[in-house]
Write a structure and sequence with these properties.
Layout: H1 2-25, E1 36-38, E2 47-51, E3 54-59, E4 75-78, E5 83-88, E6 95-104, E7 110-116, E8 126-129, E9 139-148, E10 153-162, H2 169-182, H3 189-193, E11 209-211, H4 216-219, E12 227-228, E13 233-239, E14 243-256, E15 259-274, E16 277-289, E17 303-306, E18 316-317, E19 323-328, E20 331-336, E21 341-347, H5 355-358, E22 363-370, E23 376-383, E24 393-400, E25 406-413, H6 418-424, E26 430-431, E27 436-441, E28 444-449, E29 454-460, E30 467-470, E31 475-479, E32 486-487, E33 489-494, E34 499-504, E35 510-518, E36 521-528, E37 533-534, E38 540-541, E39 546-550, E40 556-560, E41 566-573, E42 576-586, E43 589-599, E44 610-616, E45 620-626, E46 638-641, E47 645-647, E48 663-667, E49 670-675, H7 678-688, E50 691-694, E51 699-702, E52 710-711, H8 726-737, H9 744-750, H10 754-761, E53 765-767, H11 773-781, E54 786-789, E55 795-801, E56 805-809, E57 816-820, H12 821-830, E58 835-838
Parallel strand pairs: 4-10, 21-46
Antiparallel strand pairs: 1-47, 2-3, 2-5, 5-8, 6-7, 6-9, 9-10, 11-16, 12-14, 13-14, 14-15, 15-16, 17-45, 18-19, 19-20, 20-21, 22-23, 23-24, 24-25, 26-27, 27-28, 28-29, 30-31, 31-33, 32-35, 33-34, 35-36, 36-39, 37-38, 39-40, 41-42, 42-43, 44-45, 48-49, 48-50, 50-51, 52-55, 53-58, 54-55, 54-58, ...
Length: 841
Amino acid sequence: MVKNIYKAVILLAIFVGALFFFGRQMKTDISDAGDSVAFDEESFPVLRVETQGQVINALYGYSAPMDPDIVRESVTPLDESRRIALLPGKSATHLTRLQYQIVDKESGEVYDNREIPVIEPSAERVEITFDYSFKTSTEYILDILGTTDEGRAIHYYTRLKYYIDESNLQKKLAFVRQFHKYTFDKSKMTDIERYLEVSSTNRNTTLADVNITSSSDLVTWSGMSPKVISDELMTIKEYNMETACVQYNYFVEAETVSGKETYHIKEFYRVRHASGQNYLLNFERTMEADFDVKMASRQTSQLKLGITNDSKSRLLSNKEENILYFVRDNILYEYNMEKNEVKKIYSAFSDKASYLYRAYDEQGIRLLKVDDKGTLYFCVYGYFPRGEYEGDVAVILYEYAADGELQEMVYMPINATYQQLREDFDDYGYVSSRGIYYFTVANTVYSYNMTGKRLEKIAENVKSHTFMTMEGANCYVWSSSLSSGCGDNITIYNLETDEKKMLYRPDKNSYIRLLGVIEDNVVYGYVRKKDIAQTVDGSRLLPCYELHIASPAGEDLKTYTKSGCFIQSIEAKGNVINMTLCRKKGKNQYKEAGEDSILNTSESKLAKFSYSSRVTNKTLTEWYIRFPSTFVMPDVPKMTEGPAEFLTSGRFVRLEQPGIAKYYIYALGKITASFENARQAIREADRQMGVVVSSNHQVVWERSGSFLQNDIGGITQVRSGDGITNLAACACMVLKRNHLDVRPEELSKENLPVYDMLEKYMVRPVNLKGCTLEQVLYFVSSNKPVIAMTGDNKAVVISGYTTTQLHIYEPEHQGMETVSRARYEELFEQAGNRFISYMEE
């Protein structure tokens, strides 16, 4: 009896503990459903960092702990003093104490943990001297936990990089400051021009996006004379001994033909300091006008957006087409054409937000649908700088009724930064008449039932070539094989009607392959099983002998075949399908056979609301919202305030991280793209002078990140012959280097592609096909040998390099060899630049 009582007490304690734990994990300050919550002002303090006498890196607070290596917004260089100061900005709350820890970027191990127990309310700086033996030129994470006077915890992050030798931080930043200052002075055009790479292909027609190839006149603001009206925030994005990537973030005012306008400016610099000289490697400046209803054009009955890169955002109207919804500057507006009034429905920032807060515009708004009742559905995603969810990163679905009531339908937090979420959050989303919201985040396709308050997964770990959207038809289309896109059938799912149409393979000896989507139709092909081939680098060839275009209902609209040729891949642009063709040149081998195209005939509807541009001498290209030709704007529209509060849903659903490997490109101070394979990401990052980071936050590749030379130790040569193939010998050398005991004879008997040999034993092999030798030497620089193909069934292992030589192991020869880098680079190119390496687990 007593034993049973003890058991009951223990179980009760476990239950209460679980409630406490999960309650903490799932946030405790979310209101109940139906509660009315005001849009509060920003309150989190912003910390700026001072190091080596330089004030840099504004740190914005998160309400919950992030994985420390997720936040890649800044890097703080340290010198031999190991000292920094944190400078809190003005805010509604202040920090009363700080706790910080130094975290290993790769392993997540905490190296140092210290506390500053008391911070006075009037404190303008908090000094920190790190008592830790940093490795030079190695990145660490500084994880700061602050506590406010209201008892709220706020998390801040930056990366630390220590240099025992002089890294010339002051000189690099001084060069950036001088260049920046010169852009506001027309008399300095000649000084600026010597750093530019002016290109005849740059039309120099817009101030919205100015870069290193622009004219010096455009870099110095053309006919405008802007005045800086805010602090000029300087953030170091990447840093090493020679180079620095720096972002300027500030606001200006300027007189235009419409009146005085305000602009948000971001400048990106990549500079190099070497041998006492400064070099500008890259420069880009973006310019976004604040929306001001007073700038509307009565003469043309148009709303002015001004200078902007965003001329493709979705415009939605109600059924009667007398109310238009549009988004500018993370603010959602409603324009009532009959009343000639513009109303602010939702804003990321409060009206009183300082420029310091507004500079961190890490949020997006997507318009989804206006139903027959005039109800607007939209979602907000990213970092929330104020209100109920201040400091959170999340996706929130809202409903805005015709009577002016704003209601939250579901709140979905995610452990990611806005930059990563923006890349992972698919552009397409849909709300059906059945009250179901369809969306895709991090390669998982969801449906959220607003009535039943239920989130379901439609598919997970989807890839861009296996799961697609037919946006105009409001359909999803996917292959029965979500890994390859080549399977037994293809499903077309109509989100509005909940109906599914199946397309099947033609016979048991073939597959059906999803090739793409063109306008509102699906493109697929038939693949004979006997035609499927796999190359030695692990690439799979799925040549289609026949191509089809089908409607959303599955009706066959067009068929394409070409005698003796196969369709290898397609690219859909507008209503044209461009096909890459190939021919057989032997068993399971193919050669390129040129290209062909198909015109997909369709009816295009002229949009009643659209964007139009005008050009003036002063501001160059500016953008406007154009209305139907029958509409006349009687006067400058009035500005009215929208809802000051919203109804909460009480529904909390946490979104998951990517389930498959993704590779993000960090360039120009942000994530610019992502890919599902490393080789594409590396090639694009090289073009953008950026960094590739994997979805598990490892740095995969970095432009200019290689040492001038390096040699990898610990490689045991494996010779070919006596039943050991060349490729098995190469794979075995790499596996043994990673302390994996594998017999080359067994690898040879399995006769697998060399990539598959590595994949069988390693967690993260990387196919680098198509990359250049210069690009793959980054892996050798990081002490990872590279298998390089020299023919269809021959390869070598690259174990080291200098500026003129390579160190290789060739299975047919004895010992490590030193060969001409230029000669082998040509040999690798002739073999198709097929390289294979790996990432650390």
